[in-house]
Design brief:
350 residues; alpha+beta; Alpha-Beta Plaits; 8-stranded mixed beta sheet; 47% helix; 21% strand
Amino acid sequence: MNLDELLAEFEGLEHRLADPSVHSDQHKARALGKRYAELTPIVQAYREYTQVGEDLGTARELAGEDETFALEAEELGRRQGELEERLRRLLIPRDPSDDKNILMEIKAGEGGEESALFAGDLLRMYLRYAERVGWGAEIVDAQHSDLGGYKDVTVAIKGKGPEGVWSRLKYEGGVHRVQRVPVTESQGRIHTSAAGVLVIPEAEEVEVQVDPNDLRIDVFRSSGPGGQSVNTTDSAVRITHIPSGIVVSCQNEKSQLQNKEQAMRILRARLLAAAQEQADAAAAAERKSQVRTVDRSERIRTYNFPENRISDHRVGFKAYNLDQVLDGDLSAVIQALVDADLAEKLAAHS
């Protein structure tokens, strides 16, 4: 879509949003408002670029008569170049999921109990990061390990503002490797283990319609901690989506109804991710980087405790503040990934 088409769409949205009847359908009004908000910075930048271009033409015409206009033309030329680059960036196709909340699953891999403890460290890191940037987070399902780590844990992270949670945390999917002396190691030797992270955008109910006839729902006794009532009643829920074969289980809540609601929430997100993978080759390529099998050789990032070093192998990022990163100070490494992604897209559209 070229700029003229975007401007025409923007003006059409302005007229539609000014119509009171549109707001009787909240979902429709929200969708129109979202698109209007997406186009607003592009239109503003284009209008400013056009105005600067007109002013530049006038200044150049008058530059021969007055040196002041020559200086002004020079400044306007610089401004025009800045606005052109800004427009180029704004016109790069957006990831349609960038403003979405996410579900993140952290799964222990090779390394046994030490890997489960590291999965717990990663969970704490993401929870602290969410707290730092003002997002909300809740654990929706968890399988604990004997020493207090996690065999598998799913957390929902929600945020508000111009940057959605997916836009920042979508790069976290993959295998995370840790190098340290485990608490179970008596000889002081450094071990390497790994945990896997899967990040998927959370789906709204209107985005994914699930036919109840396509579901097989089983209930069973919860095996995790959570109180006597949890372990003595069939409160855990396993939902199988028959057409896709996707299986989701949840046992973290006390009631069967709550576990079913959480399981449906995860199922909708996984179905949406699966649909996007099939429909969008770019999305499929992006998600291929999220390694499902937790193999230490297929790592995206290494956390080296003896050197207090964090390394992201995809962009060559390296820093020696691992203790701060694990306490939620993830901004620098995430920004490095965002910048690399933008540079790649700019190169592809140049």
